[in-house]
Design brief:
With 1024 residues, this protein is mainly β. The protein is 13% helix and 45% strand. It has 7 domains: 6-214, no CATH class; 224-349, Sandwich (Immunoglobulin-like), CATH 2.60.40; 357-485, Sandwich (Immunoglobulin-like); 489-615, Immunoglobulin-like (Sandwich), CATH 2.60.40.1240; 624-740, Immunoglobulin-like; 749-878, Immunoglobulin-like (Sandwich); 893-1020, Immunoglobulin-like, CATH 2.60.40. Helix 1 (6-27) packs parallel to helix 8 and helix 4 packs antiparallel against helix 8 (192-214). It comes from Paenibacillus monticola. This is VanZ-like domain-containing protein. Residues 16-154 form the VanZ-like domain. Keywords: Membrane, Transmembrane, Transmembrane helix.
C-alpha cells in the first residue's frame, strides 16, 4: 500500500490559485479581461486625487443591503436574489480549501472566520482605493458566511467518509487510493477522480451563480450589467484601451426626453487614440436605436492621450421613453472587413435596479461653473399656509474649489412619485447666496404643490440649458428625504436664526404683556433682532400677525421692520402692539412672521413664536425695573406721579429716572410721550422735560425725565399708562412703557423754616422763607411771601422760573404771582423772590401752605420772565406768617431790601399863610446781597395836620425817594384854616403799599413851628 501526498497537494494548490484568479476576474474586473494596466492607472489617479475616495458611494451600515434585498426576493427582482445568494456561494469553495490549508489538528474557529473575512476585506478595500467598485460591508458579511458554510460542508463530508483508522481501509486488488493526513491523524478518504469531480463541480456551480450576481445574464459575453454603474466592467476597444460607463442621466421634457451618458475612455497604450474610430448607440427599451452625440463641452475632444483617461458625455433624444432601466449602450468601431464596416465591441445594459437619482443621505461631487462642489439633499419640508401647500427643499453645497460660488446656473425641478414635475424657485433667504471656498451652505428651493398629492418618494433634479444644442440637460438627481411637516414654532424666549441675504440674523420674542381695555386685549411685545453676520443687512419689511389656535389672525404694526438696518453684531429691540378679542385664550396665541408679499413670489411664514405672555406689570413708585430696547438696557424707576392745579385744569406730572445699566454709552433719542389716564388718551397736551440738556448717558449714569400733560379738573381715573417713544432719523420707536395704579396725590410738605432744595442739574439752590404776611383788604386779603434763593452751584447759572400756589388744608389752591430776578445767579449768590395771591376773606390765611415748583415751557425749564406752560417738582412750604406791629419811631423802617431811617421832620407855618410845609430828613439804603426782580412795593407818606386833615404822597424807593444819607423830602398842605393856626403838631405815618393794599409800618409826631412875619421872631410851640 502506498500513500500519495505530494501529488494531490499540488493539484489542490493549483486549484486554489485558479480559484483566486476567478475571484479577481469576477469581483475586480466584473468578468472583463484581467488588465493590470487598468489597476495601475486607477491607483495613479487615486494618488493624484485622494479626495475622490470620499466621493464614492458605498454601504457602511451592516445588514442594510441584506435586509433590502431579502425584501426584494420576488420574481420581479431576480437580480437582487442572485446577488444575495451569489455573494455567499462565491466564497464556499474557500471554505472547502481551508482543511487543506490548515492540516494541523483542529483549525481554530478564529482562522476559519478570519480567512474569508480578510480575503473579502482585501477585495472591498481594493475596489474603494482604486475606484473600480464600491465598498459594501454587507459583502464582507455574506462572503465570510460563505467561507464558514464551505468549511462546515467539508468537515461534514469528512466525518461521513472517514474510517475509524487507517487499518480499517480495505483495498480491492489493483485499486488506487489517496490517503491524506489531516488534523492530528484524521484522514480524508476519497478517490482522486471523485475528489476532482466534486471540487470542479462545486467551483463551476459557485462561479456560475456568482457570475449572475455580478453580471446579469445577457445574450453575449460582451454585454455587461450591474445594479450600480460602479460594478459595471469596462469594454475593451483594443489592446490597453477601454471604455467604462460612469454616469447616466435622464430629463423629461415636452420636446422629447433626453438621456445623457458618460463614458470614461482609458488609454493605457503608448500612443494617442483617435475617438473618431469609435462611436456609441443607444437601444431604448422599445427597440429604437439612436446614435449618441457628444455634448457641447465634449464635442471638441478628438483623442485620448497615451497613458491617460478622458470622460465624454453623450446625449440622445429618446422621444416618449420614460425609463433608463434596460437601456443598452453599445460601443462600435470601424471594421472595413465587415459588411457594414462596423464592429460592435461591447454592450452595456443599464441595470433594471439602477436609478440615476442619488440615494437618500448620499452626496456627490459635481462641477459647477468650473468649481468642484459636493452636493447633498438635506431636507424636504411641507408647509401649509392660507389654504395652500408648499414644498421647501434644502440642498447643501460644499465648495471645494478655490473661488467663490455665487450662481449655480441650474434650474431645479421637483418630481412626485407619480411623475408630476414642478419648477422650483429660490427661497428669498437663499437668493443671491455666496459660498466661499471650503464653505458649506444649505440653499432652499420652493414650489407650490397640490394639496392632494402624496409626498413620499419625491425627487429633485437639476438641469442646465445647452444653448448650442437648444436642449435642457440633466445634471444631478436626488432621492429626497422623507417629507416632514415644517415645524416653524419657536418656543417661548428661544432664539430663531434666519438668513437674510446670506447673513445670519437672530430673532427672539423676548417678552409680551397684555391688559384689558374696552373689551379688547391690548398686547405689547418686545422683539429682538441681532445681526450675527459679518456685514450690514437691511431687514425686509416682514409682515407680522397674532395667530390664534382657532385660525384667526390679527394684524401687528410692523413698520419698525421697514428699512431696518443692522450693522454686524448690532442688536435692536422692537416694540410691537396688537389688539386681540378677549375671548381668545392668550396661552395659545403665536406671533406669526411672514416674508413680505411680492408679486409672482411664493410667500409663507418664517416662524411662529410662542408668546410668553404675562399680565401687564403694575409699576410701583420708587422701584427700579429693567427695560430693554434697541438702544440698550436701562434701569427705569417711576419716582413720582403728581396731580397738580393749573389754571382751570389739572396737570399730571410724572417723573421717571432712566439709568444706563449697560456697558457702553448711549445717546438718548428725542423723546415724546403717550399718556393714557384710565381710558382717555391725554397725549395731545403732553410734553417731555429733561433736567439736563445732555443726552449722552455713560454707563450707570442717570437721566431724569418728566412727562407733563393736562387733565380735566373733574376727570377721575385709577390707572395710568406712560409710553415714551424715541424719534431718530424720522423714525419713531418705543423706548419704554410703564403702568401704575399708585396715584396717591401726595405733595411733600416741609416744616416751617426748612429749606426747599432745587435739585435740577446745574440749577441747584436752596429756597428759604424770609417773610410771610397778609395785606388785609376789604374784599380779599393779599397773601404775601418773600423767599430767598441761595445758590448751591459752583458756577453762575440761569435761575428757573418758579410757579407757586397757596393751598388750604382741604386742597383748595390759589394761584400765586411770582416775581424774581432775570439775571444769572452767581456761585454763593442770593436772589429775592416774591410770591403773592389774593385770598378770599373767609379763608384762614394762617393755615395756608405755599406750594412751589419749577416752571417749564416748550419742553424745557422756563427761564425767569418766560411764561410757564407747566411746572414740575411741587413741594409745600409751611409758612411762618407774621403780623407786623407799627413802630412808634420812624428811625428804623424796613421795606426789604431797603432800610429807611427818618432822622427828623420839621413842619412850619407862616403867619397869614394857608400853607403848611413839612420837610422830612432821612437816610435810605439798599442791601446789595440780593438779586431781585422789579420792586413792586410803594412807600406811602401820610402827613396829618393839627386839625386831623391828611395828605398822602406815594413814592417809589430808589427813584422818588433817593438812596443815600442826609436826604430830605418836602411836602406841603394847603388849608384856609392855617391862617389862624399858631402852633400844634403834625403826624407822619409811613405805609408799605403792595398791589393796592397797605400795611402801616410806623408813625411819629413832630412839632409845628409858627413863623410871625412882623416880629421876625419865631416862637416855638411845644408839642402837645
Amino acid at each position: 500500500m502506498r500513500t500519495h501526498i505530494c501529488k494531490p497537494k499540488m493539484i489542490l494548490t493549483a486549484g486554489f490559485i485558479v480559484y483566486l484568479y476567478v475571484l479577481i476576474k469576477v469581483i475586480l474586473f466584473k468578468w472583463g479581461s484581467v488588465d493590470i494596466h487598468v489597476l495601475l492607472y486607477q491607483l495613479q489617479r487615486t494618488l493624484d486625487q485622494p479626495n475622490r475616495i470620499f466621493d464614492r458611494q458605498g454601504n457602511y451600515i451592516p445588514f442594510k443591503e441584506i435586509i433590502k434585498e431579502i425584501h426584494s426576493l420576488s420574481i420581479s427582482h431576480p437580480f437582487l436574489s442572485t446577488n444575495l445568494i451569489g455573494n455567499i456561494l462565491i466564497f464556499i469553495p474557500l471554505g472547502l480549501f481551508i482543511p487543506l490549508l490548515f492540516t494541523s489538528r483542529g483549525a481554530s474557529f478564529v482562522k476559519i472566520f478570519m480567512l474569508p473575512l480578510l480575503l473579502s476585506l482585501c477585495f472591498e478595500v481594493t475596489q474603494l482605493l482604486l475606484c473600480i467598485g464600491t465598498f459594501d460591508v454587507d459583502d464582507l458579511i455574506l462572503n465570510t458566511a460563505g467561507g464558514i458554510v464551505g468549511y462546515a460542508a467539508s468537515r461534514s463530508f469528512a466525518m461521513m467518509k472517514k474510517p475509524r483508522s487507517h487499518k480499517d481501509l480495505v483495498l480491492s486488488p489493483n485499486e488506487k487510493t489517496n490517503v491524506v493526513l489531516l488534523q492530528g491523524g484524521d484522514f480524508l478518504y476519497t478517490r482522486k477522480k471523485a475528489y476532482a469531480a466534486i471540487m470542479l463541480s462545486i467551483a463551476v456551480l459557485s462561479q456560475s451563480l456568482a457570475y449572475r450576481a455580478y453580471a446579469a445574464s445577457v445574450d453575449t459575453s460582451s454585454i455587461t450589467a450591474a445594479s450600480t454603474l460602479d460594478k459595471l466592467g469596462p469594454i475593451t476597444l483594443k489592446s490597453s484601451v477601454s471604455a467604462k460607463l460612469t454616469d447616466v442621466g435622464f430629463f423629461a421634457q415636452d420636446s422629447g426626453n433626453i438621456l445623457i451618458y458618460t463614458l470614461n475612455y482609458y488609454n493605457g497604450s503608448s500612443s494617442p487614440v483617435k475617438l473618431f474610430d469609435y462611436f456609441s448607440r443607444v437601444t431604448t427599451p422599445g427597440g429604437a436605436i439612436i446614435q449618441g452625440r457628444p455634448l457641447t463641452n465634449s464635442a471638441t475632444i478628438q483623442s485620448i492621450a497615451a497613458k491617460s483617461s478622458q470622460s465624454i458625455t453623450y446625449f440622445v433624444n429618446m422621444g416618449k421613453a420614460t425609463k433608463v432601466n434596460g437601456v443598452k449602450i453599445s460601443l462600435y468601431g470601424w471594421d472595413f472587413s465587415s459588411a457594414d464596416y462596423q464592429k460592435r465591441l461591447g454592450t452595456i445594459i443599464v441595470p433594471s435596479a439602477y436609478s440615476a437619482a442619488l440615494g437618500r443621505g448620499q452626496s456627490k461631487k459635481i462641477i459647477i461653473n468650473n468649481l468642484p462642489v459636493t452636493t447633498k439633499a438635506e431636507s424636504l419640508q411641507i408647509y401649509k399656509f392660507n389654504g395652500k401647500v408648499y414644498a421647501k427643499i434644502g440642498i447643501s453645497f460644499s465648495n471645494t474649489g478655490v473661488k467663490m460660488l455665487t450662481d449655480t446656473g441650474m434650474r431645479g425641478y421637483l418630481t412626485s412619485s407619480g411623475g408630476s414635475v414642478f419648477g422650483l424657485a429660490l427661497n428669498d433667504a437663499s437668493s443671491g447666496f455666496k459660498i466661499q471656498p471650503q464653505e458649506k451652505k444649505i440653499v432652499y428651493y420652493l414650489t407650490e404643490i397640490p394639496s392632494y398629492m402624496k409626498t413620499d418618494n419625491m425627487s429633485l433634479q437639476f438641469a442646465v440649458e445647452d444653448s448650442t444644442l437648444s436642449i435642457s440637460l440633466p445634471v444631478i438627481t436626488y432621492k429626497l428625504p422623507a417629507a416632514a411637516a415644517a415645524n416653524l414654532v419657536v418656543a417661548s424666549n428661544a432664539v430663531k436664526k434666519i438668513t437674510v441675504r446670506s447673513n445670519t440674523v437672530e430673532t427672539q420674542l423676548k417678552s409680551a404683556t397684555v391688559y384689558s381695555e374696552n373689551g379688547v386685549a391690548k398686547w405689547s411685545l418686545k422683539f429682538r433682532v441681532k445681526n450675527s453676520g459679518n456685514k450690514s443687512v437691511i431687514l425686509p419689511a416682514y409682515e407680522l400677525a397674532i395667530k390664534a389656535a382657532e385660525g384667526y389672525t390679527f394684524p401687528v404694526n410692523s413698520k419698525a421692520f421697514a428699512n431696518l438696518k443692522l450693522e454686524p453684531l448690532e442688536e435692536k429691540v422692537i416694540d410691537l402692539s396688537a389688539d386681540v378679542p378677549l375671548e381668545l385664550s392668550p396661552g395659545t396665541l403665536q406671533l406669526q412672521m411672514t416674508e413680505p408679499a411680492v408679486a409672482d413670489k411664493i410667500v409663507f411664514p418664517i416662524a411662529y413664536y410662542q408668546i410668553p405672555y404675562s399680565l401687564q406689570t403694575n409699576n410701583l413708585l420708587g422701584m427700579e425695573y429693567t427695560v430693554e430696547n434697541s438702544l440698550g438696557t436701562f434701569g427705569v424707576k417711576l419716582n413720582s406721579v403728581q396731580r397738580l392745579p393749573w389754571s382751570d385744569e389739572d396737570q399730571l406730572v410724572t417723573k421717571i429716572s432712566i439709568r444706563n445699566s449697560g456697558t457702553a454709552a448711549v445717546q438718548l433719542p428725542v423723546l415724546t410721550g403717550v399718556i393714557k389716564a384710565g381710558e382717555s388718551d391725554l397725549s395731545s397736551t403732553s410734553q417731555i422735560v429733561t433736567e439736563d440738556t445732555r443726552t449722552l448717558l455713560t454707563p450707570n449714569e442717570t437721566a431724569a425725565v418728566y412727562i407733563v400733560t393736562n387733565v380735566p379738573y373733574s376727570y377721575s381715573f385709577n390707572k395710568l399708562k406712560i409710553l415714551l417713544q424715541g424719534t431718530s432719523g424720522g423714525e419713531t420707536t418705543n423706548f419704554l412703557t410703564l403702568n401704575t395704579s399708585q396715584l396717591d396725590n401726595t405733595i411733600g410738605i416741609l416744616a416751617a423754616g426748612d429749606a426747599l432744595h432745587i435739585e435740577l442739574a446745574g440749577k441747584k439752590a436752596a429756597v428759604l422763607e424770609r417773610l410771610t404776611t397778609v395785606y388785609s383788604g376789604t374784599r380779599a386779603n393779599l397773601m404775601y411771601t418773600e423767599l430767598v434763593m441761595n445758590s448751591e452751584e459752583s458756577r453762575k447759572f440761569e435761575q428757573t422760573q418758579l410757579v407757586a400756589y397757596y393751598k388750604t388744608p382741604d386742597n383748595q389752591y390759589y394761584e400765586a404771582e411770582v416775581n424774581q430776578s432775570t439775571t444769572a445767579l452767581n456761585a454763593n449768590g442770593k436772589s429775592l423772590v416774591t410770591v403773592w395771591s389774593k385770598i378770599p376773606l373767609a379763608v384762614d390765611t394762617s393755615q395756608l401752605i405755599l406750594c412751589i415748583g419749577e416752571g417749564v415751557a416748550e419742553g424745557k425749564l422756563a427761564a425767569p420772565g418766560i411764561k410757564p406752560t407747566a411746572y414740575i417738582n411741587m413741594v409745600g412750604l409751611t409758612l411762618n406768617k407774621t403780623v407786623g406791629t407799627p413802630q412808634k419811631s420812624l428811625l428804623d423802617i424796613e421795606l426789604f431790601p431797603y432800610s429807611l431811617s427818618v432822622t427828623n421832620t420839621t413842619a412850619t407855618i407862616s403867619e397869614g399863610e394857608d400853607t403848611l410845609t413839612a420837610v422830612m430828613s432821612y437816610n435810605l439804603s439798599q442791601s446789595e446781597l440780593y438779586d431781585a426782580g422789579e420792586y413792586e412795593h410803594k412807600l406811602v407818606l401820610e402827613l396829618i395836620d393839627p386839625y386831623g386833615q391828611a395828605t398822602e404822597k406815594i413814592l417809589t424807593l430808589g427813584t422818588d425817594l433817593s438812596l443815600g444819607n442826609l436826604k430830605s423830602l418836602s411836602t406841603t398842605i394847603n388849608s384856609n384854616l392855617y391862617r389862624t393856626l399858631r402852633g400844634g403838631s403834625v403826624r407822619l405815618n409811613i405805609y408799605d403799599e403792595f398791589k393796592g393794599e397797605r400795611i402801616l409800618l410806623g408813625g411819629q409826631n413832630y412839632s409845628l413851628t409858627y413863623k410871625a412875619v412882623k416880629q421876625q421872631q419865631t416862637t416855638a410851640i411845644p408839642n402837645s
